[in-house]
Write a structure and sequence with these properties.
With about 160 residues, the protein is an alpha+beta fold. It has 3 helices and 9 strands.
């Protein structure tokens, strides 16, 4: 116990107080940028929330979110705007960055509003990708086909929303 008290006093002395080391400036707004090679969806716009699909699991981001870096998986990004509306955008892959100042960047390889997705065309793409996977002979061809199947499956799900 005496050792714990000494270490607590040392930390307090080094940080000029017990919480200075852990303090963060929190923002009330979330400045949001969402871009893909084919389109810029949001450029430094304030929003309420964004829900993102990532390889570590889907998660929601609100103002004051802990700084994070994640990889997008194929799926739907849902943006909740300050005006109360929401927009759903399909992404194939990319990155998510949440900065300490509460700004958020989503950079996608490819992104399309879900209302622009043709469900029957998405199902056709899935069938073709599954066919390529079943006939792939090399490891590289199998890996590429498996990625195509994963993206196509997410595309079909997004078209059904």
């Amino acid at each position: 116990m005496a050792s714990f008290l000494r270490s607590t006093k040392l930390v307090a002395k080094l940080t000029q107080g017990p919480t200075k080391c852990f303090s963060r400036n929190y923002a009330d707004q979330m400045n949001f940028t969402f871009a893909a090679a084919n389109q810029i969806f949001y450029a430094n716009k304030n929003i309420k929330q964004v829900d993102v699909p990532s390889f570590s699991g889907s998660f929601g981001i609100l103002p004051n979110h802990v700084p994070t870096l994640a990889v997008l998986r194929p799926g739907v990004v849902t943006v909740y705007e300050d005006e109360g509306t929401s927009k759903k955008i399909f992404v194939s892959s990319g990155t998510i960055t949440v900065n300490e100042d509460s700004s958020v960047q989503v950079l996608a390889e490819e992104a399309h509003p879900i209302e622009d997705i043709d469900g029957s065309a998405a199902r056709q793409v899935l069938q073709e990708a599954q066919s390529q996977l079943s006939t792939a002979s090399s490891d590289v061809a199998k890996a590429e086909a498996a990625i195509a199947v994963e993206v196509a499956e997410a595309l079909v799900l997004a078209a059904g929303n």
